[in-house]
Amino acid sequence: MKARFGKLFVVLALVFASVSLTACSAVQHSGKLEPIVIQEQGSFTAGGTVITSPGTFDPVKMTPEGQTFHGDHVYAFYQIPEKARKLPLVFWHGYGQFSKTWETTPDGREGFQNIFLRRDYPVYLLDQPRRGNAGRSTVARTIEPVPDEQRWFNIFRVGIWPEFYPEVQFPQDQSSLEQYFRQMTPDTGPIDIDVNSDAVAALFDKIGPGVLVTHSHSGGMGWATVMKNPEIKAVVSYEPGSNFVFPEGEVPPEKNSSGGSLKPVEVPLDEFMKLTKIPIVIYYGDFIPAEPTDIPGQDMWRIRLEMARLWADAVNRHGGDATVVHLPEVGILGNTHFPFSDLNNLEIADLMSEWLAQKGLD
Amino acid sequence: MKARFGKLFVVLALVFASVSLTACSAVQHSGKLEPIVIQEQGSFTAGGTVITSPGTFDPVKMTPEGQTFHGDHVYAFYQIPEKARKLPLVFWHGYGQFSKTWETTPDGREGFQNIFLRRDYPVYLLDQPRRGNAGRSTVARTIEPVPDEQRWFNIFRVGIWPEFYPEVQFPQDQSSLEQYFRQMTPDTGPIDIDVNSDAVAALFDKIGPGVLVTHSHSGGMGWATVMKNPEIKAVVSYEPGSNFVFPEGEVPPEKNSSGGSLKPVEVPLDEFMKLTKIPIVIYYGDFIPAEPTDIPGQDMWRIRLEMARLWADAVNRHGGDATVVHLPEVGILGNTHFPFSDLNNLEIADLMSEWLAQKGLD
């Protein structure tokens, strides 16, 4: 009898080990990671517009007459894992960035692309119109190499250059910093909230229902896109930085900081109400001061966190479901403006996974 | 006895079926494709340079003084399949294009990225400096939306706008053409052969030995990169379009066409000799005239095919192993300037697979 229980125990232990292995597949081992099984992957563009030159095309001269120019689309690379969950995650980068935001971290660890593929979510990474691989812009632009990386180091709250914040969740070696700086890419045309939200709305027309994950500048463009397409079933927004929309008559005053002002945007109530129909969660990292400071790279985030709270209040006042999580307040310390690629990004991913599960989006 | 042979036959048939299934995993079934098992995937930048503004960074003013600008790197997204072959394939796009060249085809089929992952090759897709996701350029540039797509339709030998070539291996629906046009992206700085070949050479320093696969404009930059890094163990070049290098004293005359001239480039013999140490194969598609024509989109390829043959002769004269395959001459008809994404791209991939096998590169 004892022997038989012994065997049963071994079998159960094996079953349990195999279950935990599956559940923990996102954990990064010191050795080789488990392979990712991809049922389908590829890329496409969505949305955009066409310029047509008047006249007839001449195949000898090939001057612009009668020719077209397709631009202002969004580009997306997608991967659908085997045994995929139902709702895909659509990841939208922030200002000056592109899909790299969600790919390999500056120090070579897995970003949210791989982490959420391992958690069985279909993953779409997009480049917004006039950025990265979606570079065909219908509006001209001059791009100049203006040295600006120490500014971004501060604004992205890695530290106050050349010092890293103490206990910051960012690798401090030279090679990581170099990869971080090189993950920026310029705008090939003016940033246009309408152009961008139209294109991402067109993406959701193509792929159907999904969860939009935004970062920084795409936060506000994300709200604009939700108001254009009901296929967006939820939003996870990391450190939204602009375009906080409020219904007519409820717009709070502009906020000021040493890093510039932040003006909320008025929209008709019936548009705003679309934001109350889906669950929304917003995360902000560490090193955001509670009181005004003359360091603009910090102070600009103080007013954004304040505005995000007012915004969530407005959404909830109208029956919505918006939550603002300031990570240090839930005991998660040291995060920069890029929590999803910080050293603790698996913990940050766990938080997002739990929220998706709570909202029945998994 | 008969029954036992019967059973044996069933078993053998099953083994055979399973073997053929593996061998044909790149074949696109009308239904669902087999999943792709990825051991590792991610992205990084390589090479590039840094501009530094004199002075000291001021965290309050955040003006350019004392700030840096990292640019002119190459960006790569890579995938390593489970049970990978030894040598990765590094795919380099052509003029006006980016990694999309090798991803999903305009009509939604699998491109060389997926096809060669299915054939167990590690695959790297790069964006050259100042293009796509590698947009940080150390030299300024103005980008303007000049309608030019009918010109490219002709130069890429899809047809003579608005007519498609008869029997062309290109989908003729509107949506495919739109995706094709939208897979272009502009340069964010001037094209610089040295900058680009330096960056791709730096990529090979990072990843070690591999096979370089080039297209069109990257063909000539590929020869330049081979001369900079012996980690490139072979080159597959689709329709190389410029920078044909010849040793001192052996440079053929410039060639002229209604689509402009093509001037070969002189290099020292000891540099040229590096191109004789590795196997090289060059493919050109269909619709290239044998005699001069006043249609520049055709005629410019006539002189390139002629020059490629002179170039291969020069390489082989010095003991090298270069082959030029003009696809119609081996019975493969209808290919455009993009054979690897044409309707018959699996046949084109088979040709490349066979060549890699012949040269012991698989």
In short:
Chains A, B: Keywords: Signal. The structure is a homodimer of 362-residue chains. Chain A is an alpha/beta fold.
- Uncertain regions spanning at least 5 consecutive residues of chain A: 1-30
For the record, the count of structural domains of chain A works out to 1
Largest interface (C-beta under 8 Å)? A-B, 81 and 81 residues
Distance between the termini of chain A: 43 Å
Give the strand order of the largest sheet of chain A, numbering strands 1, 2, ... along the chain: 1-4-6-5-10-11-16-17
Q: What is the helix/strand order of chain A?
A: HEEEEEHEEHEEHHEHEEEEEHEHEH
Helical content class of chain A = 25-40%
How would you name the CATH homologous superfamily of chain A? Alpha/Beta hydrolase fold, catalytic domain
The oligomeric state of the chains shown is homodimer
What class, by secondary structure content of chain A?
alpha/beta
Portion in beta strands of chain A: 15-25%
Mean pLDDT of chain A: 93
Q: What do you see in this structure?
A:
The structure is a homodimer. In chain A, strands 1-4-6-5-10-11-16-17 form an 8-stranded mixed β-sheet, sandwiched between helices. Chain A is about 30% helix and about 20% strand. The first copy, chain A, is α/β, with parallel strands linked by helices. Chain A contains 9 helices and 17 strands. Chain A has a single domain, classed as Rossmann fold (3-Layer(aba) Sandwich), CATH 3.40.50.1820. Chain A has helices at about 1-25, 110-120, 150-155, 175-180, 195-205, 215-225, 270, 295-315, 345-360; strands spanning about 35-45, 50, 70, 75-80, 90, 125, 140-145, 160, 165, 210-215, 230-240, 245, 255, 260, 265, 280-285, 320-325. In chain A, strand 13 (about 255) and strand 14 (about 260) form a beta hairpin. In chain A, helix 3 packs across helix 8 (about 295-315) and helix 5 (about 195-205) packs across helix 6. Chain A is globular and about 65 Å long. The interface between A and B is large, with 81 and 81 residues. Strand 7 of chain A pairs antiparallel with strand 7 of chain B.
